[in-house]
Write a structure and sequence with these properties.
The complex is a heterodimer of chains A (147) and B (234).
Chain A lengths: L1 H28 L5 H4 L3 H4 L4 E7 L5 E2 L5 E7 L4 E7 L11 E8 L5 E9 L21 H5 L2
Parallel strand pairs in A: 4-6
Antiparallel strand pairs in A: 1-3, 1-5, 2-3, 3-4, 5-6
Chain B lengths: L1 H31 L13 H28 L2 H32 L8 H22 L3 H16 L1 H11 L16 H4 L2 H43 L1
The chains are: A alpha+beta (147), B mainly alpha (234).
Amino acid sequence: MRSRRFIIGGVIILAALFYLIYGGMRQAMVYFVTPAELQGQEAKSQGKFLRVGGMVVKGSLQRDPDGLTYRFQLTDGSAVIPVRFHGVPPDLFADGKGAVAEGKIGADGVFVATTIMAKHAEEYSPAEHGKPFSPRSFIPAAEEKRP
Amino acid sequence: MAKAEKKRGSGEILGVLALLFILVGLYVALIQAPPDAYQGEVQRIMYIHIPSIVAAYLCFFIVFLGSCLYLWKRETRDDILAKSAAEVGVLFTALTIIEGSIWGKPTWGVWWTWDARLTLTALLLMIFVGYIMLRSLIEDEERGAVCGAVVGIIGFLDIPLIHMSVYWWRTLHQPPSIFRPDKLPWENIKWPLLWPLIINIVAFVFLSLYLLSLRIRVGETEERIKGEMLGGTA
């Protein structure tokens, strides 16, 4: 009797755990989509929660006079998507650097981000030398090679 | 008795080494090492974040070894080793996640995000917290040890997944700086920042082994008392 209860409990816990892992991993596997993948899908993806990852197009980052609204473009090298964000971005968020935006595509085709995350490289060096950001680490190398 | 004394002595050497390396490690990480060119001072969290996960991986590798040995030879000694290492491993995994959060907020902009590497690391913590719960739930010693060994071996298999996650999937977490086949560590981390990191990795390895030796002694003492109690009632 006791062992049967134990088994039933165990199965329920295991099932819950696997459900959580499955749900979590399904989201985590495609953590963000690229602007190229979104291209042409804007109307279909409208209103859906999305993460878009890419590099902030150099020179595209603008800050409105209110100091809190940022407008910029994200690119993966082949496509570009305009993004609008209202809030405080992380310190490492900058022109020409990697970023992941969370939010939804609006009716005007602009991606309205609710969260901005900055992506940094795996390289560290002393401050006095200065260092360019490495876009190589942005997308898994294996994926980059695919046509 | 002499054997126990000798064992205690080697455990204490680990403790002294850990203390020494931690003191030197703190100095080089906080004062000697220059700030990072891109991230500035906050990058110093690396000097505990990477050592913590190295210590955690080491502990879970010991769980894996102990579990395999136990399933093969059924010696209590190996089970105590695995059980002890699991507890120390949980400590260092939790530390890694906490340090990573504190590092993530100012650099990435978020405390946490469900990318593959973070999700799989959270899973590693859950598996081994589950392992500890399982061990305290099953009263039958031998059954507990067998179930624990199975969970310990499966749980360890999450570590290669965590390591490869940043190559296989798109993540917010950057690829490895040190443990990778295609690039040498000093290509990613310049020497002035790399050697303080190495000292701290050594410090955390000694610290985890010291804590492990203490936990094993507790396990052995428990076992001896159980043996004496059984001997007394028989």
